[in-house]
Amino acid sequence: MRVRPGISVLWRGPTQVQVGTDPRWAVTLGQLSPPAARALAGLAGGADVRVIHARLRAEGVEPEEGRAVVALLRSVNLLTDRAPDPPASHDHMAWSLLDATGTATALLGRRSRAHVRVVGLGRLGTGIATALASAGVGTVQPVDDRSVTSADVGATGLRPDDVGARRDAVVRRLLHELAPHVRTGAGRPDLVVLVEQQVADPRRHLGLMADDVPHLAVVAREASVSVGPLVRPGDGPCLRCVELHRGDVDDGWPAVAAQLAGAVRPVVGGEETTLAATAVGFAAAQCLAAVDGRPATTDGASVELRLPDLMPVVTSWAPHPDCGCAGPVERGCAGPVEEERATAGALPAAGR
Asked: Which Pfam family name is an example for this entry (predicted)?
């Protein structure tokens, strides 16, 4: 039994210590004896229970109090009985804290066997692909035969000397530089990310629906990026449902959408530097939720990030009765419902 790796033990006062800093699991141990508080302060994450008892004994703490302290740590899940893992990455450390067993080995193993295809490799698609490879996804297949332009160059990975080269070739090189063991070849994907401009074209997703492949739409608009819904075929709304709902509330939308889907792709503000960087992180988190087998914020919803403040706006979607993608649906089912903007200054966490 040991303290979860990554957990800090901090002195709060003569009779108090705080274990952890994240509000989801941090706990204050109060009413300790001063020797017990001194013994626990500065205790390293990953420390074995025997080390805790030894430090308590060295400070002259009574055995009964020592056992009570260890029992409290165990009761709030800050101790794990898993054997120590080898030296960990930032990803391994963070996900170990979120795992009930205290280790991310199983989760990262699942990621290493996953195959994610990313279609569309401007600033957004390149950033999503590199984030997934860095997070441990075993196969990241970049798809885009267009050339890198000067507008693509930026913080998500494409460089000035890449201009003119084929996008998918450049991104494959980037992926291998960041994650040498990543695979980039073709195969049946577990998830497809379709990065588009102005509007998601539902026709591009018909084959994925037919093949029962989950997929995520990421759409760069004039000054915003929309992420989602994460389509899990047969369970929840698809992209055609979204378009049908939009047509229900705006008679002109189908004509507008058709023009946007068929237009030559211009440079759009949705790949502005800060917006692209924020959207990349959020979209990658949704992909990892799907790969890890967790619920995602974009299950049955799309999240729009808008300049200038980048605060997310969530719109919930239901299957449309005229689509048929999820079986019979009663007419009158809810259309788009825009929810309150997040107010905590952070993106909604995947699966929460």
From this structure: ThiF
Which pTM was predicted?
0.85
CB-based contacts of 350, cutoff 8 Å, min separation 6 = 285, 286, 288, 289, 294, 295, 296, 297
Q: What digits encode the pLDDT tens for the residues 113-123?
A: 999 999 999 99
Note the pLDDT of residue 346. 36
3-state secondary structure the chain: CEECCCCCEEEEECCEEEECCCCCCCEEECCCCHHHHHHHCCCCCCCEHHHHHHHHHHCCCCHHHHHHHHHHHHHCCCEECCCCCCCCCHHHHHHHHHCCCCCCHHHHHHHHCCEEEEECCCHHHHHHHHHHHHCCCCEEEEECCCECCHHHCCCCCCCHHHCCCEHHHHHHHHHHHHCCCCECCCCCCCEEEEEEECCCCHHHHHHHHHCCCCEEEEEECCCEEEEEEEEECCECCCHHHHHHHHHHHCCCHHHHHHHHHHCCCCCCHHHCHHHHHHHHHHHHHHHHHHHHCCCCCCECEEEEEECCCCCEEEEECCCCCCCCECECCCCCCCCCEECCCCCCCCCCCCCC
Domain architecture of the chain: domains with CATH:
2-88 (3.90.930.60), 109-338 (3.40.50.720)
Band of residue 344 on the pLDDT scale cut at 50, 70, 90: very low
The sign one gets for the Cα dihedral 204, 136, 89, 29 is positive
Strand partners, 107: none
Q: Hey, what are 291's tokens? A: 């790969």
Q: Can you tell me the mean pLDDT for 279-297?
A: 96
Q: How does pLDDT run across 291-338, given as a tens digit for each residue? A: 999 999 999 999 999 999 999 999 999 999 998 886 544 544 455 555
Contact between 128 and 102 (Cβ < 8 Å): no
Q: Are strands 79-80 and 16-19 parallel, antiparallel or unpaired?
A: unpaired
